[in-house]
Amino acid sequence: MTSGALAQDAFSEVIRPITAPTVFDLALPRTQLHAIYLNQSMPSRVNAGSLGLLGLDGDFQVYALQFEYAINKRTSFVATKDGYIDFNPGQTLSSEEGFADLGFGIKHALIYDPAKQFVLSGIATVEIPTGESEVWQGEGDGILNLNLAALKLCNKFQFAGNMGLHLPFSDAQSLTGSVSLHASYEFTPWFIPLVELNWFHTFDPGDGSLAFTNQLGNAVPANVPFEGGDLINWGSANGDENRDFVSLGVGFRSRLCASSTLGFAYEVPLTEEEDGLMDDRFTVDVVWKF
User: How far is 242 from 261, CA to CA, in rounded Å?
Assistant: First the structure.
């Protein structure tokens, strides 16, 4: 068997993580399309700092399509963030729709070892503020995301992890980090159960100066004592009061054919609901590799 065939066979059954899709990327470079539908229910009340507990409720949906193109077996171009957000709070804030920011960059395998079925990759992406402020996007000067992603296969088990640092280009947004973990086991091609853990941490809060149209102006970033998780960076001036947000997701993937998989995950927060935007979240996606 040639080395190229060995590499192809070693990683042919790899599946992509489902939760936190803008930050939790697969370490393996490959060409693929990743269609995502995300529905997140929000807590009935959220901690708004000096404004007290504000009613929220409702939910929001995200419709997105990620893209990756493998330049060679070790390097790929990745488009990690895009899509459309439909925001429907039950109280306090207004219902809005709009586009998310755009994020793209390069993934490179620092270690690519088919014999040991192990990959360690560095991923660098830039998020540019092209979105709409009505859905908490399009503000600030952009963010540089630096990630280290790992993948290990062991018989029918798959383990993956991602550690990231999210560096804003101005003080208007918060400097945050994230750690994501994935474990799955392939019982059958149609049923691959998985569990995923995501941890977001605020290292340095923003200055609270961002003004989001139709969403209480700059009252949110000036008062709310937490950050917005994987999709939103408010630049909350009080983000250091509740630095951590942790969520747990369970779900499965099914192989539709040799090149496509369908995924589902249900996710809940492990930290206080009032100090975040998640009551629960479910994500449905389809990955087509070619």
Answer: 37
